[in-house]
Amino acid sequence: MPGGRGLLWRCDAVAFKPVDTQREHDWICETYDAWPSSADVGVADGFHAATASLTRPAFLDDRHDPWAIGDKVAFGEEEPVAARRFVRQALAGCAPMTDLSQVVHGDLTGNVLRTAEGSAVVIDWPPYFRPSGWALAVVATDAVCWQGADLSLLREWDDVSSWPQLLRRALAYRVTTRALVEDDPDLTRELQVLEEVS
Prior knowledge:
- By secondary structure, the protein is mainly α.
- The protein has a single domain (21-197), classed as Aminoglycoside 3'-phosphotransferase, Chain: A, domain 2.
- 42% of the residues lie in helices and 10% in strands.
- The chain has a two-stranded antiparallel ribbon.
- β1 (9-11) and β2 form a beta hairpin.
């Protein structure tokens, strides 16, 4: 079954994906379980309002997968290891982040489902500890790079703190990850986004 990094399988109407680590899975389940049933977690703002008070999960230090590496490279915690020229160009001029970090959903693109009644449900939550605007920047760059959205979409959230820098970091994150899991990824659209935000 497509999606979920190729790890999904299906049994009747239910799709399953194995967890990366038991510690992470337990933390996510305990966090969801502690939220009040009335919590509005269906959209990025509501989801991140609900996670704003969570402390940084210790298991984040144990991650060494391509997505964790991309995240650390995007925030200057590791040197670029893939697509170095693009990543260095994307991060050129980025200042140290002063926005507060919190627990965020690092891959909302494609992981928000709508019920028949229109309610949103967030699924497949990879937690990161970054400014909430970064999660939105990942969605915006994904929409333009992968789903054909117009470049003008990137200006829709100009009021988000550090928005241009967050877009550049989102690009560095996604390109690093793609370069680690794909052979010679086509970065044509990413280059257009980078030119737009430069």
